[in-house]
Specification:
The chain is α+β, with helices and mostly antiparallel strands. The chain has one domain. Strands 1, 2, 3, 4, 5, 6, 7, 8, 9 and 10 form a 10-stranded mixed beta sheet that branches. A hairpin with a 4-residue loop joins strand 9 and strand 10. Helix 3 packs across helix 6. About 9% of the residues have low confidence.
Length: 275
Amino acid sequence: MPTLRLPFTPFYLGPPSEEERAAVEASTARLPFTFPHPGVTQAAPPLPPETASEGWTLDHHKVQVGHGCAAYDRARCLLQQWRHFDLPWASTNAPAVKPGAGVVVTARTLFAWSCSPLRITYAEECPLRAGQLPPWAPAPPPRPKGATQLHTSCGGAGGGGGCSGGGAAAARGAGGRAHQRQAEQVATMRPPKGRRYAFAHTTLEGHTIKGEERFSVAWNQDDDSVWYEIYTLSRPASWVTTLAHMLLRAYQRKFAQDSMAAMQREMAAAGAGKR
């Protein structure tokens, strides 16, 4: 039986039915992107200056999940199995991770549910790029009090620790300042030595936001650490999500924290199974 949908919104008053989720999944093959720069996260951070200057909300979260080549291989498999999205309040249709695959994110927020379409823009495994900040790089130094900046968080391998780089870069020009700081940071670093597996999905018409989200795991061959990373550009896609922007931001932060915790949990379970 179809779930009641709120008029002129992407929200449902209950979990979308299997038929409704299947219809959204089928639509991902024909729906247009709502983000104007598909694939831009592939070489970020930093972003290209022209993208950074557009004032997208930038979120960058990372957490250490293990050590060594075997841990990197496990983390890559978990990412391909969508275990980073195995959350009590959010899930996906878990398609094969390849460019062009349609993704449907079903999520519960307070009293409402959403069923949002995306398409995988790229999937790759390669050495870390010169000129790209690796996930283990420290957050750029904070701006003076009152300056809007990129939101960054990180956690230790134990799962409890974290650090915050401040508020979101939502105002026009803030993305440019974050880009400048990241470019300066890259200029002082030697080329990273490591490997990364990454893929991104980009929003389609009908999603609650506009943007792109990259998930990646990376192996730092200098100290053997393995990292899980989420890098996101976004903004509200409709008047409804614009009005509920503070709530939207709270759930974006909740997703990042819950996803990092899920990867740490899955990595610990996978490691225990290997012994």
